[in-house]
Amino acid sequence: MTKARQLVKDGHNIVADMVEGMALAHPHLVLEPTERVLLHRDYADIRERQVTLISGGGSGHEPTHAGYIGEGMLTGVVCGGVFASPSTQQVLTAIRLAAGPHGCLVVVKNYTGDRINFGLAVEQAKSEGFKCDMVVVGEDVAVVNANAGRRGLSGTVFVHKLAGAAAKAGKDLASLVEMV
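Above: the chain sequence. Below: its structure as tokens.
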């Protein structure tokens, strides 16, 4: 009998393994492993010339969110547990790393945990002197049942692209917030 190959090494470390694998497989990504933050390899240069964009959320639907890191898109993402929002500390770490003199736009889907944890991180970052703001994407063409609420699943990628392209073109933080 042949030995079965496993896709998952250890269920307890699945997200850590996933973000490490993403960074290894995609040379344009770097990993801050302690808080599971993936960043564009050139994030330090990007933050000096434009507004940066951070997003993220629960893991389990990869390559979202890391698949949207790139030129004219996201600067970094925060990866929470499987179907669980990232902690405030994780998000704050991402903002501290990515934010530069032009500021940082944090793009959040309309999930309660994401709104709370990303929102608290943005407020903490502001109190530390970082220039940052947050937008919540709340459309949802995927939900028929009005009780579930509009989570921003479908439109978030368009917000990443529109805001990312505008940031790359030199728009300031206030303009990005107003635009999206």
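The mean pLDDT is 91.
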